[in-house]
Design goal:
alpha+beta, 5-stranded mixed beta sheet, 3-stranded antiparallel beta sheet, 15 helices, 12 strands, disordered N terminus
Length: 424
């Protein structure tokens, strides 16, 4: 793995980003600007849009023109109409030809192709399999927490959020455990790239992803030559619908990266976001300490409050109308899960983390409909187990400095967050 490049400095200050989010005329507002996420002011922009222009056209951006939908009900309607709103080719605002490699995967497929490939790997995260995995996750979480330097500052993102999710990924892939941080590295390369200083050039990003492909081609050849097993690559290699995927290497890479990013970036950022939220709302942490039975609901509320994937893109397959706006065939649309999860009509006081929020499960962080996140139950289980083990050991986890956020409008995440744990 190459050394991480120094993260570029933001060209826009917090004050300027906040002013842009609050004051820019809606007719030209671009909510997908990185600085809005880096400075954590994007909710100001999305809130204005949801209240005043719930179906919004950004006429010009680095991604070209695109529509945004920001209300909870409208996003559900779009998700339930895949015939009109396609996932084909890409689910981000960045066009495929601008990415270093064209890597199709089942998340960027419609209809039967998507359903077939998803069905093959879904058993790995079924409720039955997760029940078998829970003792392993609990043991690893406990060991990880016991190794933390009590009373000293450390990076929660690296020591806990990344480590726990990477161990889980290595288990699901049956990837060499001692090399598990390669999975984290490849995930960072895929979602961070040059913007966050993960790599220095687009060519380096391409080379690192091809290195990932080469590693998984070796794993594929090994698993294909063995009896079928319960890991993700073995499932793909032995299923009739995907047994020839190794002959389509970019599709293999695309599906591997989908599974890595889906299992790594999203859960790890919710693990970090939960600690941050309970520091910002200490009354909720006191309620949690008094009533740990609420942890399963807390997991849903953390995922709502954090919303680790800010949006998903769809592309109109025909001329249509949405929210009274006329959308043309080929137009791209961002479904802002982040905006929907703060929709006041569904989640009153949505800016607050409420551990006993009665409808926390209604959040759209995992999507809805045919593309609903396959790993939803795995993510919720990891959050539940981790908080059970945290409460068993520590009086609280104190955030000691503002987190450093990822420079991305797609993955709403953290690069670093310094904390201190205090024993019970």
């Amino acid at each position: 793995m190459a050394a991480t490049a120094e993260r570029p400095r933001s060209a826009i200050s917090y004050d300027d980003a906040l002013a842009y989010a609050r004051e820019t005329p809606l007719e030209v507002l671009d909510p997908a600007r990185w600085d809005l996420f880096e400075h954590d002011v994007v909710l100001e922009a999305l809130g204005r849009m949801r209240r005043e222009a719930p179906v919004h056209l950004c006429p010009d951006s680095v991604y070209g023109p695109y529509w945004s939908v920001t209300r909870w009900q409208d996003i559900r309607d779009v998700e339930l109409d895949p015939a009109t709103w396609s996932s084909d080719a890409t689910v981000t605002l960045l066009e495929p030809e601008r990415f270093p490699l064209e890597t199709p995967s089942f998340i960027t497929m419609d209809g039967p192709e998507h359903d077939h490939q998803r069905r093959i790997v879904r058993p790995s995260v079924s409720r039955a399999n997760l029940r078998n995995l829970e003792p392993t996750i609990r043991e690893r979480a406990g060991a990880m927490l016991d190794a933390l330097p009590v009373g000293d500052d450390f990076d929660w993102v690296d020591r806990v959020s990344i480590e726990l999710t990477t161990q889980m990924l290595a288990t699901l892939f049956d990837f060499p455990f001692e090399e598990r941080r390669k999975l984290t590295w490849w995930s960072n390369v895929m979602t961070g790239g040059t913007a966050n200083g993960v790599v220095e050039t687009k060519q380096q990003r391409k080379d690192e992803l091809l290195d990932c492909l080469a590693s998984f081609q070796e794993i594929w050849d090994d698993r294909a030559g063995r009896a079928p097993a319960n890991d993700l690559i073995s499932m793909l290699a032995h299923a009739p619908e995907t047994a020839d995927m190794h002959e389509r290497p970019m599709e293999l890479l695309g599906n591997v990266m989908l599974l890595i990013v889906g299992g790594n970036d999203t859960t790890r950022n919710s693990i970090t976001g939960g600690v941050l939220a309970l520091n910002r709302f200490p009354d909720q942490f006191e309620k949690l300490r008094a009533n740990p039975d609420v942890i399963p609901n807390l997991a849903h509320e953390i995922v709502r409050w954090q919303t680790p994937l800010a949006y998903m893109r769809r592309t109109a397959t025909k001329d249509t109308e949405l929210g009274g706006r006329k959308v043309r065939a080929g137009d791209k649309l961002a479904m802002w899960y982040l905006a929907a999860n703060y929709d006041e009509d569904v989640f009153p006081d949505g800016e607050k983390l409420l551990i006993d929020r009665p409808n926390a499960k209604a959040n759209l962080s995992f999507g809805f409909g045919t593309h609903r996140c396959m790993g939803e139950h795995l993510a919720l289980m990891q959050l539940r187990v981790l908080w059970e083990e945290i409460l068993a050991r520590f009086s609280h986890v104190e955030v000691v400095s503002d987190p450093i956020r990822t420079r991305s409008s797609f993955v709403r995440g953290y690069q670093e967050m310094r904390v201190r744990v205090h024993p019970k």
